[in-house]
Amino acid sequence: MDLPLCHPFGNVEEWELARWIIKNIGQTQTDSLLALPIFKSLGLSYHNNYSMMKLVDNLPSGPEWTCDMVHIVGDRIDEHGRPMEADLECWMRDPLDCIRELMGNPAFRDAFCYAPERAYTDEHGTNRLYDEMWTGNWWWDTQLKLPPGAVVALIILSSDKTTLTRHRGDKEAWPVYLTLGNIARGVRCRPSSHANILIGYLPTSTLGTLFTSATQPLAKYRLFHYCMGQIMKPLIQAGTDGVEMTCPDGWIRRVHPILAAYIADNPEQCLIACCQENACPPCPVDVKRKGDPLHTNFRDPEETLSAIRAYVEQNHSPLFEAHALRAIPDPFWANLPHANIYTCFTPDLLHQLHNGVFGEHLVKWCTQLLGNKEIDARYERMSPFPGLRQFKSGISRVSQWTGREHQEMQSVFLGVLTGAVTGAVTGAVANDWMKMAKALLNFVFHARLHAQTTRTIAGLLEALDRFHQSKHVVIDTGIREHFEIPKVHSMVHYAAFIESHGAVVGFNTETPERLHIDFAKRAYR
User: Fold this and answer.
1) How far apart are CA 313 and CA 309, in angstroms?
2) Euclidean distance between CA atoms 378 and 17, whole angstroms
3) Residues whose CB falls within 8 Å of the CB of residue 296, separated by 6 or more in sequence, listed in order
4) Residue 179: helix, strand or coil by DSSP?
């Protein structure tokens, strides 16, 4: 029997009302609303929140959810002399089913790519274009490892622990999202396109009641990797052998789902990389040399695993100490085929550049040199101009800025400094200060381009070199003693990532933070 399009609701109007209620009001208010005489007279198929949610539960739900109970045995002893234990919930969906759902969605037909491409902006092929993920080198290199005719499903994971309660309480959620780099960036990053699928909720327990303060951090790290390993397990064989899937254009292809990118903030990148939080997740640079213009190689997964396991077994490993690793012998990425987790880490425009290098460092350095009063006065006196924001109250009174506001500040920041620096310092020092500020701003502007080329990458590297040549002025003026700053060091990895994965703007942490509203915060409240 053919069911109506709005099944299990009685008609389209009922469905629209239910959707509005779920989006805009809570459970108690729903009961009060549906109890009004005007709604009772409509003869709805639901009369309170419970009956409405029963209908919602009967809607098509996509890949099924399962709950894996993780049994934890701590090192704290209870009153009976036994180790304390607990069972934690790890909710997950089969990532292979989620990939099938994305691959089979005809809505992505005109925004889906099945093979890597090389594009150039000139007829001689000297200025290569790096835009979407399929224009980078990573897909080309991975394609050579697979049988002819195989299609790579470029898995992009993102995870970020988030607070559910406002102003009070400690309720948290740790969602894990999955999308595909085969989908065009403009579609993939738009929440309304539903190109990001929630594949799991990780346990958020601090394990403080089970473990002592000395062992608690490592226990949390190992719990994360165990749960992620359970979620990602179906992708091991599928990535190796391939799986037949129906694609958006209706054709059936043999698809190899392979982890290509992981979007996370710096603390979570360190957790995934099995390194300490003062280390660089992608590379093994010495902590004390983070301020140097070093272009180090990425960490080697096999070398890292050997060092960790040698330390766990023998309690000693020179490489373990030198690379600032953590004793996690079975990271979730260890068995994923054709995946190097250290090349998967994406640059973070929001936290590393807009809020970090610019907001936390350059603005503060300039404020210390010139004073809040002078910076505010110059922002306030900026002439109005279409497309530029006017900061009528200055910037010093605001304690927290968004990434968008930092971008608006960047657009006029060099104009704010012009003339003011020469009043605070003189001669070569003032020139070097302006060179340093201009170099950092140039780097940020180059990094956030929606389409990169060989020439723009050269401009990016040139801006980074000029910053390192002139950064001594910050130390000379007594504002800083060193440049061992993780976010400043992260800039050395941008060019390599762009050449490998395409433009950075497609991998911003703002995307998972926006997804939290729909998949965690709104659902909880």
Assistant:
1) 6
2) 51
3) 283, 284, 285, 492
4) strand
Sheet holding 119-120, edge to edge: 119-120, 128-130, 452-453
- Omega of the bond prior to 8 within 30 degrees of 0, cis? yes
Q: Which two tokens stand for residue 70?
A: 């993780």
Q: Are 394 and 375 in contact (CB under 8 A)?
A: yes
Are the beta carbons of 287 and 484 closer than 8 angstroms?
Answer: yes
C-alpha dist (Å) from residue 162 to 41, 159, 175, 232: 42, 10, 8, 21
| Residue 470 · residue 443 · CB < 8 Å | no
What CA–CA distance (Å, rounded) separates 202 from 157?
14
Output the tens digit of pLDDT for each of the chain's 525 residues: 456 667 788 888 888 888 888 888 877 888 888 888 888 888 888 888 899 888 888 887 778 999 999 999 999 998 888 999 999 999 999 999 999 999 999 999 999 999 999 999 999 999 999 999 999 999 999 999 999 999 999 999 999 888 877 656 678 889 999 999 999 999 998 888 889 999 999 999 989 899 999 999 999 999 999 999 999 999 999 999 999 999 999 999 999 999 999 999 999 999 999 999 999 999 999 888 888 888 778 999 999 999 999 999 988 889 999 999 999 999 999 999 999 999 999 999 999 999 999 999 999 999 999 999 999 999 988 888 888 888 888 888 877 788 888 899 999 999 999 888 887 888 888 999 999 999 999 999 999 999 999 999 999 999 999 999 999 999 999 999 999 999 999 999 999 999 999 999 989 888 777 787 777 766 655
pTM, two decimals, is 0.89
Structure tokens at 171: 């309720």
- Exposure string over 266-276, b if 16+ CB within 10 A, otherwise e: bebbbbbbbbe
Handedness of CA 160, 165, 168, 174 (dihedral sign): negative
Residue pointed to by tokens 């003189």: 426
Q: Which residue has the tokens 């959620």?
A: 173
d(CA 357, CA 489): 10
Q: Which amino acid is at 175?
A: P
| AA letter at 334 | A
User: Residues 395-401: contacts with CB within 8 Å, 24+ apart?
Assistant: 395/363, 396/367, 396/372, 401/355, 401/359
Give the CA dihedral 479, 483, 488, 494, nearest 10 degrees. Answer: 140
How many other C-beta atoms are found inside a 10 Å radius of the C-beta of residue 265? 17
Q: 337: Cβ–Cβ under 8 A, 6 or more apart, which residues?
A: 236, 239, 240, 256, 258
Retrieve residue 10's tokens: 């009685």
Alpha carbons 488 and 291: distance in angstroms, whole number? 7
> Between the CA of residue 446 and those of 351, 400, 439, 460, what are the distances in Å?
16, 25, 10, 6
